[in-house]
Write the structure tokens for this entry.
Amino acid sequence: MLKERLAKLDMRQQIQRLVYIIVAVSAIAVAVNMFLGPHNIAAGGITGLAIILESMLGLHRAMVILIANVLVLAGAFFLLGREIFFNTLIGASLLPAMVRLVPQFQLVESSVLSMAAGSVLFGMAVSLMYHHKASSGGTAVPPLILHKYFGLNKAIGLFVSDGMVVLASLLVFSVDEFFYAVFSIFITSMTMRSIEKALARRRAECRFCYESGCV
């Protein structure tokens, strides 16, 4: 009886986790297709690379994300182990599909407002995925490989990989759009840090309440 209850609870948690991941991936697709992409803001990551290659080669950004994530998943499976592979698989599989499904159009005319809104939405979505121990693949995985085999700090690895994408945007887009991408990374990072601090504070409050016996 207890085992059945635990199994049902675990199944419910897995379904809830999947729903959150779908919501997060959908938010990333909206941020890319309606806020960042229409203004040529390639703010790092595999989505930024997809925006660049779409402009350079005419490839659909969803196809670029799919191909890149297949390579990333292969690297995660062989170099990082099954746990990280499966945690990345769901988000990495859903992202190209959502980018394909969400319509591409300019929701906000102002580049500054679009960059700010898209970056905040992107940061919130990535934080939601990290909170549920998931990832959308892309440039989040190579830093883990470099950390495991070469001891490179993960934050530095992520900064380098995103920085290379932003620099590559200069080959296609204007200097103004390059700086928009730089500011976008900053806003996304600040959004994620704020959410992480809020979640940490909430966990500390819950722990204190549990230990003190408050109801």
